[in-house]
Amino acid sequence: MAGDNLFQVNSILIHWGLTAKKARKIRSAWRAETGQGFKCLKQNNLAPDSSDFVLNLMLYLEKQGFRNFERLNVTPGNLLSVNVNNLNYILTDWITGSEVNLKNPEQVRETGRAYAEFHLAAQGYRCQIPMHNHLGQWPSAWDEMLSNFSSWEKDVRARGAQNPGEHLFLYTAGYFREQGEKSFRALEASAYQALVQAARGSLPVIHHSCYYQNLIIDPHDQVNLIDFERSKHDLAVHDLAQLINRSARKTKWSLEHGRSLLAGYEEVRRLDPAELQLLRLLLAFPYRYWLCCQKYFRESSGGKWFEEHLAVLIKLETWRQLFLQQIGSS
Predict the structure, then answer these.
(1) Model confidence over 91-143: pLDDT tens digits?
(2) Which fold would CATH assign to domain 105-326?
(3) CB of 261 within 8 A of CB of 112?
(4) Three state DSSP letters for the chain
(5) Contact status, residue 170 vs residue 157, Cβ threshold 8 Å
(6) Burial per residue of 209-227, b for 16 or more beta-carbon CB atoms within 10 angstroms, e otherwise
(7) C-alpha dihedral over 114, 115, 121, 123, to 10 degrees?
(8) pLDDT per residue over 54-83, tens digit each?
(9) Right CATH number for 2-94 from 3.90.1150.10, 3.30.479.30, 3.40.50.300, 3.30.200.20?
(10) Residue 329 has what pLDDT?
(11) Which residues of the chain have pLDDT under 70?
């Protein structure tokens, strides 16, 4: 079987003029040892327009001098991806290292630096793909989420709660909906639209895939970004909010974690007061609660799963509120 896998990998690598001595499957990618170093071979499942946006962004980052990411390898014929047996593949350099430890303040600080450098390098990238432009869409997205809360609560009350998870939802939905409504009103009164208008000229880009497994710390203690499939045009603070939100469960809304992230970021790119306000609003909006409910009501996750995940969010809520009161203050 190992020989068959190596043959399969080499039948694709030949398009780049490469041959693998060894190849190992890691998650959804192949780590191939070639004469030009370790390479990452993976399927490109994006639609053509999205593929153009992402792959050309990777080329743009390299041209801008950004180094801490998975550099895209182009074929000798200047193809960004290849089609083999009706499947598309891309090849990047393999980033040697380990996933960032979210409880290590220095690694978190370095993560902030990496994102600031990415945001500066990606700014100005132009590729007119509407689905990858999220500028100005926060109000409509939040409004839809708030409508979801009301709809789900109305449906459950009409038919009666079917399990402990739904009982817990009915008990807490009003509180979290009010949090969302308060954030929505504050967004309308903020400088959001002015920042969006300015961003239409500078065209900021966000990574939008801020999972710890996509943040690799290398032997030189630098954080590298991988997986750009969800990248889009939006305000840079969206990435910072996503980083904090996605680590909240592991760090219990640690103020030290948040401050380390922002300190590293601001070593490279300063955040003005309006951006900090938007960061707080993004974190104040109950996105994780909405996401949990969406997975249950729309994707039919089980009642036990729903109960357990809601319970975690409720347990963390006091820490979240304390975090929101202090983040951005000295």
Answers:
(1) 999 999 999 998 899 999 999 999 999 999 999 999 878 889 999 999 999 99
(2) Aminoglycoside 3'-phosphotransferase; Chain: A, domain 2 (3.90.1200)
(3) yes
(4) CHHHHHHHHHHHHHHHCCCEEEEEEECCEEEEEECCEEEEEEECCCCHHHHHHHHHHHHHHHHCCCCCECCEECCCCCCCCEEECCEEEEEEECCCCEECCCCCHHHHHHHHHHHHHHHHHHCCCCCCCHHHECCCCHHHHHHHHHHHHHHHHHHHHHHCCCCHHHHHHHHHHHHHHHHHHHHHHHHHCCCHHHHHHHHHHHCCEECCCCCHHHEEECCCCCEEECCCCCCEECCCHHHHHHHHHHHHHHHCCCHHHHHHHHHHHHCCCCCCHHHHHHHHHHHHCCHHHHHHHHHHHCCCCCHHHHHHHHHHHHHHHHHHHHHHHHCCCC
(5) yes
(6) bbeeebbbbeeeebbbbbb
(7) -170
(8) 999 999 999 999 999 999 999 999 999 999
(9) 3.30.200.20
(10) 65
(11) 1-3, 329-330
- C-beta pairs of 170-177 under 8 Å, 24+ apart in sequence: 172/289, 172/310, 172/314, 173/149, 173/293, 176/149, 176/286, 176/289, 176/290, 177/146, 177/149, 177/150, 177/153, 177/286
Q: Kindly list the domain boundaries of the chain, sorted by start residue.
A: 2-94, 105-326
